[in-house]
UniProtKB/TrEMBL annotation:
The keyword Iron-sulfur does not apply. InterPro entries: TIR_dom, Toll_tir_struct_dom_sf. Residues 20-157 form the TIR domain. Keywords: Membrane, Receptor, Transmembrane, Transmembrane helix. Coiled coil: none annotated. The chain crosses the membrane at residues 210-232. The lineage of its organism: Bacteria, Bacillati, Bacillota, Clostridia, Lachnospirales. This is Toll/interleukin-1 receptor domain-containing protein. It comes from Blautia stercoris. The keyword Transmembrane applies. It comes from the Bacteria.
């Protein structure tokens, strides 16, 4: 008997479950993208054939409601019956799901049918984070267990129902991920592991060939065939095994690419291409190299060098005018030569003499300054531009390229610190020395003068330390004691020879005042005082003291004293309900001083206080709703109207995923940019040009110039660069970029394709000819093919046909669903099929005129062009014998398919934004191998 499941008075075993009408019920919001995913997923599951090795001959039916539910108070009877007759519930999770009453009702009702368990519920995440988009009904389940007395009790437990994740920065990329991720849904439906299912699906045809060959070999061996024939068979089997291995490497390359291991993915794809003497074709490897190297584009943003550390990288930078790269991980700090990738030196606690220290070795850099100038190359022609698609809530366009930056940090030195020691490192040679030499008199004040060290910290981006004055005890010679007199030493431009010394008395605060200083100049000093008074009451204040003759006037009334947080020792409510405001960070920004604090039960509000720096007069308070803020070293920017030509001074708050623009003097919101992923890097010019790099790998350029007082329409910006993969950190210097993923740093450059030959527009028609000898016509309505199509459609084997033709002795069809079919010689069924693209709502308006099939120099191959989507012309080079895709050409804003020359065997590419055309060869496997090896040798 199967495992029994109790549902109210109703009990059913597993066999009865499997006899249900539907394998799964898809629950989703009836929003455009949610529906696209639901339609595509249903198609994948209903056309899926389980691998023979699993011995499960199942053909699934999947329920998907086509209409919104009626405005009634309960689920309709049809929906209830469908849920009752479904073995699994698949929930498509997007940001709007929690607001859907009916989706939540469907989940609750399905759970009630299954003992309030989520065991048969699968979630497909298409947008956002699970914690934000999963409704409560998905996140708990009930289990029945026995207590100590042996009684059965129900226990409510938290669960994580996520089965698959196709979140990406565009709908196209999400649907592309669904091509393989749907197997994560299919695996539990088959009660098997995803990894096994994926490998079996990818290798289905190869395994079939091997099985046939293996069977022949066994039979032949059994009847004692001649050894010479056996040798031929064994050689053929060996060849097939080699081909399978190459295909496995190509699949592995795709995995690496998706995981952001870019150089490793290209190297693996190159290794997956057989050598010429191997006498075999591995189209999956050819396709992998063509896609990853972008061989049909004029220029590609690709990694040319890789630097690797031991563990997760937390900091990275260009130093020595871009000639070197420095990075930090948990084991130490690394310095490489940028061009060669050679490791100059690794700095560790052991080398610096602190092997057993609990302190970490830390990398410090000079304070980053505003850029002076940016040179941009305008690529857009005729005012056209293309939106980023899934970028932000604003309009982000392609059309500009950064070609030169003035004012980038030279970083001739970087700094290392550990346990109150500070070293200055020459970024070219890697040699290091103490930041400053301890004064002989100051050494004399301490018993162990050789190891005495100062505690350095940064104030206003410059190194500073406390200088304590001592005196010798009159009764005990050689014993030195503190006088209570302190000085603050600030090293200008981090030069140990340029000192600004500020005096202050520290008896009142027992030596802690130095740690409380936030900013200092010749006129004013800002501090954050956090303390308990004599009654045990706590307060956190921002205080500003005047500075006169290099002395901090702490004995005079402060210029500013503002309480950020306070509570009585007798009032403990702040512990159980921490809604009170808390200080987080403060910094000087030009002529202003900005204090950032947070408040709210979950610190979901961020408040900025802006003061005139010299007078400490408050200018404005700005409050925004944001759970997390950007890195502390740059929490805000201020732009003066005389620099930006704006009607007002602009305050820019930098949050985790947002930029908030407000009027500086009033705090009034102007507008905000909300990004799809977190901000990892901000660079800017004082004239209001901002460069924002995101975790999704995109770098945007935004303009805060000549803005209106009120946001009447969306702001806009430009996509300047795109790593096309998620990154953890990034930096740029001139035309070099570095992107960090985990423990690897990749150096990127724009590489020109030497095989791309630009041509003038007046020659384009030569490669778009309508000559019948160059293209296969559409014979869908012919007397020969039309009856075949109608019969196959009656059997439900093919969709609506957009193009068909008989090539050789086989008929080939291309359907509206994006599937390319090969019909068997008897014209009775589909022999093989491959999916070229996913079916979408837009496909409904496609016509056969949008499809062109080109004859190539190889009679066993065609070039199928699809122009059904606006500004998205692409083509597939298909091998008809193996029914495999060799290349997908186009589908990129940088260049799209535009034509083909059979005589020259070259494809015509177009960048419609720039109105430029170029030719690229239809590469052979040998040519691709040569290109990949050349790239590999360059990175090595």
């Amino acid at each position: 008997m199967g495992k029994e499941i109790e549902t109210g008075e109703k009990t059913e075993n597993k066999t009865e479950q499997n006899n249900r009408r539907y394998k799964a019920f898809i629950s989703y919001r009836h929003q455009p993208f949610d529906r696209k995913v639901a339609v595509t997923l249903q198609k994948h599951l209903e056309t899926f054939h389980p691998p023979k090795q699993l011995e499960k001959k199942e053909k699934w039916r999947v329920f998907r409601d086509e209409t919104e539910l009626p405005t009634s108070a309960d689920l309709s009877q049809d929906i209830r019956e469908a849920l009752e007759n479904s073995e699994y519930l698949i929930v498509i999770c997007s940001s709007m799901l929690v607001q859907s009453k009916w989706c939540r009702e469907e989940i609750s009702y399905f759970k009630s049918l299954h003992n309030n368990s989520t065991q048969n519920i699968l979630a497909l995440l298409i947008e956002g984070n699970p914690g934000e988009v999963f409704p409560e009904e998905l996140c708990w389940s009930e289990e029945i267990r026995k207590n100590a007395e042996g009684e059965e009790i129900r226990e409510k437990i938290e669960v994580e129902p996520l089965a698959a994740n196709i979140t990406a920065d565009s709908e196209r990329k999400s649907l592309k991920k669904l091509k393989t991720e749907y197997l994560r849904i299919a695996a539990p439906l088959l009660d098997c592991r995803y990894d096994d299912l994926y490998q079996r699906e990818q290798k289905r045809k190869i395994h079939r060939s091997l099985a046939v060959m293996g069977g022949v070999t066994v039979v032949v061996g059994g009847i004692g065939i001649y050894s010479s024939i056996m040798a031929v068979r064994l050689n053929e089997q060996k060849r097939l095994l080699q081909e399978e291995n190459y295909n496995r490497m190509a699949v592995q390359s795709d995995y690496m690419w998706e995981d952001g291991k870019v150089t490793e993915a290209i190297e693996t794809a190159v290794d997956a291409l057989p050598d010429t003497e191997d006498n075999m074709s591995v189209f999956s490897a050819e396709k992998a190299i063509a896609e990853k190297l972008g061989v049909f584009q004029r220029e590609n943003f690709l990694p040319v060098q890789k630097y690797e550390t031991t563990s997760y990288i937390t900091k990275v930078a260009f130093v020595n005018s871009g000639k070197n790269v420095v990075a930090q991980d948990a084991t130490g700090v690394y310095l490489w030569e940028t061009e060669s990738g050679k490791l100059v030196k690794k700095y560790t606690k052991t080398e610096m003499g602190f092997e057993s220290s609990s302190w970490d070795l830390d990398l410090l850099l000079d304070k980053e300054k505003p850029l002076e100038d940016i040179k941009l190359q305008k690529n857009v022609s005729g005012g056209n531009a293309m939106t980023d698609g899934g970028g932000t809530n604003e309009l982000m366009l392609y059309g500009y390229k950064k070609i030169m930056t003035k004012g980038e940090a030279q970083n001739s030195y970087f700094y290392l610190t550990c346990e109150k020691r500070l070293w200055r490192v020459n970024s070219e040679t890697g040699e290091y020395e103490s930041f400053e030499k301890v004064d002989a008199k100051e050494k004399e004040w301490h018993y162990n003068s050789e190891t005495y060290a100062y505690e350095y910290r940064k104030i206003d981006g410059q190194f500073a330390r406390d200088y304590q004055e001592y005196k010798e005890n009159e009764e005990i010679p050689g014993l030195w004691e503190e006088t209570g007199k302190h000085s603050l030493i600030v090293y200008k431009e981090n030069d140990s020879n340029q000192k600004e010394i500020y005096n202050y008395e520290d008896e009142k605060y027992f030596g802690y005042f130095y740690d409380e200083i936030l900013s200092i100049s010749e006129d004013i000093c800002y501090v954050n005082i956090s303390k308990y008074d004599d009654n045990g009451d706590y307060s956190d204040k921002i205080i500003a003291y005047a500075v006169e003759n290099q002395t901090i006037m702490r004995n005079k009334s402060p210029l500013l004293e503002e309480t950020i947080e306070e509570h009585s020792k007798d009032d403990m409510s702040w512990i159980t309900s921490p809604e009170k405001e808390s200080f987080r960070y403060a910094e000087r920004i030009g002529d202003y001083f900005v204090v950032r604090s947070v408040y709210g039960t979950n610190e979901e509000y961020c408040k900025y206080r802006v003061y005139d720096y010299k007078t400490a007069k408050k200018i404005s308070e700005i409050t925004v709703n944001a759970y997390t803020c950007y890195k502390d070293e740059k929490s805000a920017l201020i732009f003066k109207k005389e620099d930006t030509n704006n009607y007002t001074d602009v305050f820019l708050g930098i949050l985790n995923q947002e930029l908030i623009l407000t009027e500086l003097n009033t705090g009034k919101l102007i507008y905000e940019y909300t990004f799809p992923t977190e901000i990892i890097k901000i660079r800017y010019l004082e004239n209001g040009i901002i460069f924002v790099s995101l975790k999704n790998g995109k770098e945007y350029m935004l303009g805060i110039r000549e803005i209106e007082g009120v946001k009447n329409e969306k702001g806009y910006g430009w996509v300047i660069q795109d790593f096309e993969k998620e990154i953890d950190l990034c930096e740029s210097y001139e035309n070099n970029y570095i992107g960090v993923r985990s423990n690897k740093v990749y150096l990127y450059q724009d590489l020109e394709n030497q095989n791309a030959e630009e041509i003038e527009e007046d020659k384009v028609l030569l490669y778009q000819t309508q000559n019948k000898n160059v293209k296969y016509p559409d014979y869908t309505q012919s007397k020969t093919i039309k009856p075949v199509i109608e019969d196959l459609q009656k059997q439900g084997l093919i969709s609506e046909v957009m193009w068909s033709y008989k090539i050789g002795d086989k008929i080939f069809l291309y359907g509206r669903d994006g599937v390319f079919y090969k019909i068997n010689e008897e014209l009775s069924t589909v022999e093989e099929k491959i999916t070229l693209k996913e079916e979408t709502e837009e496909n409904k308006n496609e016509t056969s005129e949008d499809i062109t099939v080109w004859r190539t120099q190889n009679q066993n191959e065609i070039l199928l062009e699809d122009e059904t989507e606006a500004h998205n012309r692409r083509a597939w080079l298909i091998n008809l014998d193996k029914m495999e895709i060799r290349y997908e050409i186009g589908d990129d804003v940088k260049g799209q398919f535009a034509g083909y020359s059979q005589k020259e065997n070259k494809v015509l590419m177009e960048n419609w934004l720039e109105e430029k055309y170029w030719l690229c060869p239809l590469y052979t496997a040998e040519e691709l191998k040569e290109l990949g090896t050349k790239w590999k040798n360059q990175t090595d």
